[in-house]
Amino acid sequence: MKLLYEGKAKKVYQTENDQEIMVYYKDDATAFNGIKKAQIVDKGELNNAISSIIFTYLTEHNIPNHFIKKISEREQLCKKVAIIPLEVIVRNVVAGSLAKRLQIPEGQIIEHPVYEICYKNDELGDPLINDHHAVMLKLATYDELKSIYQMTKDINHLLITFFDQVGILLVDFKIEFGKDHEGHIILADEISPDTCRLWDKETHERLDKDRFRRDLGSIKEAYQNIYDRIKN
C-alpha cells in the first residue's frame, strides 16, 4: 500500500478503496513538539486497542467519525478524510499548559469546560489561536466551527461518562476533525492516553502521556491500566 503520511505516532496508507485508509500505530513517543523522543514497547498496540474501543463507543452514541474497524494489533481501517488543520482541546480539570500559562494549581475542577483551538503547523509549534484567526487563515468557517464545537461538547459528555464508569477522571483531551468525500465534518485521528490526560479518580495517579513528558516511568503499565479498565 502507498504511504500517504507519517506522523509522530502513526503511519497512514492508501487502501484499494479510494475512500478508505489504513492507520498503523507506531511505538514512537514524542513530547514538546518532537524535541523529546523515545520508543515505548507495545505502545502502538495499546493505543490502537484503546482508540478502537473508544471510537466504537462513540459510533454507538451517534458521533460521526472515521473509524471503520480494527484489522490487526496495530492497524485500523478508517474512512479517508481531509483533515481540518485544527486541534480542538477540551479542559475539564486544570493541568499542563493551562496551569502554567495562567498560574493555576493543577487538579482544580473547571466548572464550565474550556475549549481551545490550535493551528496544526509543526513549523510554528501548533500555536493557540481563536475562532477569528481560524477563519482568517481559511482553516474553517464560522458555521463549521459551530458544528465542531457542538460535536466536541457531545464527545466530552460521552467520554466523561465512559471513563467515570471505570474510575478514571478525564482531565483534558485533544481531538481532530476532517471532511469526508461528501464534505461532512467527522471526528478523526485517535483518542488514547497519547491524546488525553487520564487520572485515577481516587489517587490522581497519571495514566497517560504525562508519564513520558515528566519522566515518571511505568509508561507502558499506565497505558495497559487504561486498556484493562475499558476493554470489557
Characterise this structure:
With 232 residues, the chain is of the alpha+beta class. It has helices at 43-60, 96-102, 131-136, 142-164, 210-213, 219-230; strands at 2-6, 10-14, 20-25, 28-31, 36-39, 67-70, 75-79, 82-83, 86-93, 109-119, 128-129, 168-179, 185-188, 196-200. The strands form 3 sheets. Strands 8, 9, 10, 11, 12, 13 and 14 form a 7-stranded antiparallel β-sheet that branches. It has a 5-stranded antiparallel β-sheet with strand order 1-2-3-7-6, covered by helices on one side. It has a two-stranded antiparallel sheet with strand order 4-5. Helix 1 packs parallel to helix 6 (219-230). The radius of gyration is 17 Å and the shape is globular.
Secondary-structure element string: EEEEEHEEEEHEEHHEEEHH
Structural class: alpha+beta
What is the percentage of strand-forming residues?
Answer: 25-35%
Taking Cα atoms only, what radius of gyration do you get, to the nearest Å? 17 Å
Shape field? globular
Q: Give the mean pLDDT.
A: 96
Unreliable segments of 5+ consecutive residues: none
Q: How many strands? A: 14
End-to-end CA span: 33 Å
Overall helicity = 25-40%
The biggest sheet, with number of strands, parallel, antiparallel or mixed sense and barrel status, is: 7 strands, antiparallel
Determine the number of helices (DSSP H or I, runs of at least 4 residues).
6
Features of the shown structure:
232 residues; alpha+beta; 7-stranded antiparallel β-sheet
Structure at a glance:
By secondary structure, the protein is of the alpha+beta class.
